[in-house]
Amino acid sequence: MSKLMRNEDAFTGLEAAIVLIAFIVVAAVFSYVILGAGFFTTQKSQEVVHTGVSQTSSTLEISGPVIAQASSTANLGNVQFYLQIAAGGTSVDMRKVTYTVATTEHIVTYVDQDGTGTHKVIRTPVGQQVTDDHMLEKHEMVMITIPLTGTGEFVGDNILTPNTPFNIDIKPDIGAALGMTKVVPPALLTDRSYELY
Fold first, then answer.
1. Global pTM?
2. Hey, CA dihedral for 124, 129, 133, 138, is it positive or negative?
3. CATH of domain 60-196
4. What are the distances in angstroms from CA 111 to CA 25, 55, 69, 70, 169?
5. Which of 151, 140, 147 is nearest to 94 (CA)?
6. Where are the alpha helices (DSSP H) in the chain?
7. Which of 99, 95, 109 shows the shortest CA–CA distance to 154?
8. Could you list the residue ranges forming a coiled coil in this record (predicted)?
9. In this predicted structure, what is the pLDDT of residue 144?
10. 3 state SS of 19
11. What pLDDT shows up at residue 47?
12. In the prediction, which pLDDT does 54 show?
């Protein structure tokens, strides 16, 4: 009588194939999870970089000279300059911009004419393209007048006298402040205008 022999070589190959397929599936799922986390991290890093660039670069720039008018032979009466959007900058809500005038002994912060506060600047649109939405946009320009006499700490104190250096910082709600340092001319005549350097 002949003996029936069992040959399990095929089953061993099939089991190895199943184990190999299981490893491949697990590796594919693991790599998908790792790639998803990498893409998420890359996207968040990109957002952080864009936010950082938008907040560190100033969106405003001075256009033209800074002009001051003397209220007397001892004081400046106001300072005027033109603002526009810097190249690549985004629109700025002018109602949220603050202006700080500082000497070595005094600091006064001004707000927009439509803002709330004691010290206010006068904002005058310039040109044909300016819209009346309080937003300074590309190709638009506004003239800012900062009254240095009439209200506040600068009244009657002879603070901005001839040869006095002072700073003006212009701070939009988003982005870096735009600062400038100017010096009062060495001699003043009442109601005369002077370019500040």
1. 0.70
2. negative
3. 2.60.40
4. 63, 20, 20, 22, 12
5. 140
6. 9-56
7. 109
8. none
9. 96
10. helix
11. 85
12. 65
pLDDT at 131: 65
Environment class of 81 (CB within 10 Å of its CB; exposed 0-12, middle 13-18, buried 19+): buried
Please give the pLDDT value at position 156. Answer: 46
CA distances from 176 to 62, 98, 147 (A): 14, 12, 24
Write down the pLDDT at residue 5.
64
d(CA 99, CA 62): 13
Tokens of 196: 């500040």
Nearest to 98 by CA among 84, 109, 108, 86: 109
Q: Strand (E) positions, the chain?
A: 60-70, 76-85, 92-93, 98-102, 107-110, 122-126, 135-136, 141-147, 165-171, 178-183, 193-196
**Could you tell me how many residues make up the chain?**
197
Rounded to whole angstroms, what are the CA distances from 5 to 8, 10, 12, 15?
A: 10, 14, 16, 20
Using CA atoms, how far residue 117 sits from 7, 78, 96, 106, 187, in Å, is 95, 18, 12, 18, 32
Q: Where are the domains of the chain?
A: 8-56, 60-196
Q: Is 129 helix (H, G, I), strand (E, B) or coil?
A: coil
Which residues does the chain have with pLDDT short of 70? 1-11, 53-58, 128-132, 150-158
